[in-house]
């Protein structure tokens, strides 16, 4: 296929993306340098004032730190649960495997709002978990789980874990099942086989899964908004408040640009790291 | 391969329980006869499903979501199909860049996309309109379709098209009779995935709707932000049921794992 | 002018010469094979005939018409692809009918010709099956029927048997030859398998590095190769470096590792040459006047034995028909000889660059 033909086939999509994605992103970038006045609205002057405000305020530091701490915790827990689950999934009989695939991936297709509603019902002070624990006499007063970072992490793990299982499972499928048999024939037990043979081969899967989970968790909105409310703010809910409540769009845009920058930097350096470390083995 | 041991089975059962818990709870709560959230429900009642009928705002939001999902998935498919053919087939400068651009909505944090769309639509006077919403959704869901169609195009044996050409078929006939039927599972799979993604979308949409174009996730979100009652549970249950039906259809047609991994292998 | 004629056909990819100045004449109704190792340019040549690759220079004439400006879909050639390239979403009959449909042939005529062609390839009973449910051999026949039904002036076969297992391949060779002759269609086949080329073709074109090395009947390329490459590529051959030291009308004498060997007269200048002898032409004799050697390895192949014999000339491969007796075992002393007619004296190869 010639270059000209390729470009003309891509032209309609390219036009949409150019006008409705590239231009708006540039406009938002510019917006983050404008100033805002409660009475005057947005003015077109260019300055670093918004960035100075965000970077100079411990309030925002705390929000960014919380956001990345939540994302990191979610990623680690997803790896700890997702890796063995993907390994077991790969060894199931076809019937149970397809059942588990449905159970694992199905929730991805249900709105995050609905799934988070479920967690809200489970975690509330009068929620399912607290009621059950009280009824069994295990606790006297309800454990506070709503409006805590822990609750957000728990619900985010539920939202993100399919991505980790998928990534690890994909790398398990590329693996030659005979390598496990080979290790066993050489005298290795199941734990040693997993640790020495299986695990090293799925590290690329874990790393790419971690990248997806981390970047999606860092920019998650619905879950922290519903489970954290006004009390536990993360970056994306802060941006939302600036835009929809305070109406300080330039400041919100600056916060959003910092989030974009942070996520991109983490993604690129992570990719570099993975490529440098594993390009030789997994060419 | 050896079957899983009892530890693996226990782990899988607990994992399944964790995955299903919030969904089971929402569905369970929606059948309560009482006026508050209780689980397990003290009885089975359709009270809160009937209650939906008294809330035309939710029903209207549901319709908007359905129309929006349908329209944006169609637009995104029509745009992605030729682009996937070009990217999958062509050897031209800028091919990689083009692919990265079309997949970039997956990389950019959704909240950034949301404010960018808000800023743009406000300036051109399309904010809150169905048309503006539809174009924005088309952008968000394009990567999902493109990945599946691209996998199908790359997996296609070029000599099949050459065979048709050698038998006298014109370029358009080859596309219509040979290429399209071969990649159609990928296209339909992509369309469904795109539809569901649009139907469920919250973070971008919440910035760019107005009361007349509020979608179901946005309506639910703003309701839940204030209060949780059995009504949102029953509405969610309807949405879950709808998704499950679609999901089973796609699983039959294409395989859920292939759909979500986006690789053309089985 | 021959039925199919390629004149100075050349294909360059940037500076890489894929096919270089290729001339070929194919008579109507005959079966020609392009044979060579992978990367020798045979598939590129076929693609140019088919119209999927544009030649850098040179021309292709079929039945007197210049094909240069005719697009692939108007050339009306029957092509069988290596992967068979069946339309998986169509039944066998629909696959075969596709080309007729494109030619707007009416339904009754179409049905009749599809049925006739499926009869020809012995697949009439599977007309309504989908290709997914068929074996490799059956798919191959569908591909062949689909190519033949349009009654092409020329049939192109791209490695048609390479996806079949060994036993089926032999069956399909006979079958392919029968079908080709019954249909009476001029055929060009590309293959890297020398036994396939020899079994099927009227004429074999051996290619290397984008050039024709030799073109002749299968018997002649095998018996009288003109270069060490051809002698090695078709069948097994013991090739040895030697020096041509004298030639008379009665015969030539070469010296190899200090041993003098006689051959029939050749027309080569004195100096370095390559001598070639086929393993099956070497006899094991008992007389001490012949070339002495020691068996180093012995492999039993069923219908024959394969021996490796260390001699003053170097290590020689010897094949012996299995006549129901055990052959000499490793370590045994043997004496080798051959009829001097079977010794080929060939010029030394020059390595050619392709850029």
TrEMBL record, chain A:
Q: Where in the cell is it found?
A: Cell membrane
Q: Name one Pfam family in it.
A: BPD_transp_1
The yes or no answer to whether the keyword NADP is present is no
GO cellular component terms, A-Z = plasma membrane
List, alphabetically, the CDD domains matched: TM_PBP2 (cd06261)
Keywords, A to Z? Answer: Cell membrane, Membrane, Transmembrane, Transmembrane helix, Transport
Q: Where are the transmembrane segments?
A: 12-33, 63-89, 101-125, 145-169, 202-227, 247-270
GO biological process terms, alphabetically, are: transmembrane transport
Q: Which PROSITE patterns match?
A: ABC_TM1
User: Taking the first listed entry, what is the main subcellular location of this protein, grouped into a coarse class?
Assistant: membrane
- On the tree of life, the source organism's domain of life is Bacteria
How does the protein associate with the membrane?
A: Multi-pass membrane protein
List residues of the ABC transmembrane type-1 domain. 64-270
Q: Which InterPro entries match?
A: MetI-like, MetI-like_sf
Q: Which family does it belong to?
A: Belongs to the binding-protein-dependent transport system permease family. CysTW subfamily.
Q: Which PANTHER family match?
A: ABC TRANSPORTER PERMEASE PROTEIN, INNER MEMBRANE ABC TRANSPORTER PERMEASE PROTEIN YDCU-RELATED-RELATED
Q: What is this protein called?
A: ABC transporter permease
Query: Species lineage, top-down?
Result: Bacteria, Pseudomonadati, Pseudomonadota, Alphaproteobacteria, Rhodobacterales
Automatic annotation (TrEMBL), chain B:
Q: Which residues form the ABC transmembrane type-1 domain?
A: 62-250
Q: Which SUPFAM superfamilies match?
A: MetI-like (SSF161098)
Q: Could you state one GO biological process linked to this protein?
A: transmembrane transport
InterPro entries documented for this protein? MetI-like, MetI-like_sf
- Major subcellular location class: membrane
CC terms in the record's Gene Ontology section = plasma membrane
Annotated transmembrane regions: 7-31, 68-88, 100-124, 130-157, 178-199, 231-250
Which keywords does this Swiss-Prot/TrEMBL entry list?
Cell inner membrane, Cell membrane, Membrane, Transmembrane, Transmembrane helix, Transport
Stated membrane topology is: Multi-pass membrane protein
Where in the cell does this protein reside? Cell inner membrane; Cell membrane
Q: Which domain of life is it from?
A: Bacteria
Instruction: Fetch the Pfam families from UniProt.
Output: BPD_transp_1
PANTHER family with a match to the protein in the record:
INNER MEMBRANE ABC TRANSPORTER PERMEASE PROTEIN YDCV
Report the sequence similarity comment from the record: Belongs to the binding-protein-dependent transport system permease family.
**Record-given protein name:** ABC transporter permease
Organism (species): Paracoccus alkanivorans
TrEMBL record, chain C:
Family the UniProt entry places it in: Belongs to the ABC transporter superfamily. Spermidine/putrescine importer (TC 3.A.1.11.1) family.
Q: List the transmembrane segments.
A: none
Reported function: Part of the ABC transporter complex PotABCD involved in spermidine/putrescine import. Responsible for energy coupling to the transport system.
Q: Which InterPro entries match?
A: AAA+_ATPase, ABC_SmlMolc_Importer, ABC_transporter-like_ATP-bd, ABC_transporter-like_CS, Mo/tungstate-bd_C_term_dom, NA-bd_OB-fold, P-loop_NTPase, PotA-like
**What Pfam families does this protein map onto?**
ABC_tran (PF00005), TOBE_2 (PF08402)
Q: What is this protein called?
A: Spermidine/putrescine import ATP-binding protein PotA
Subunit info? The complex is composed of two ATP-binding proteins (PotA), two transmembrane proteins (PotB and PotC) and a solute-binding protein (PotD).
Q: Name one GO biological process term.
A: quaternary ammonium group transport
Keywords in alphabetical order: ATP-binding, Cell membrane, Membrane, Nucleotide-binding, Translocase, Transport
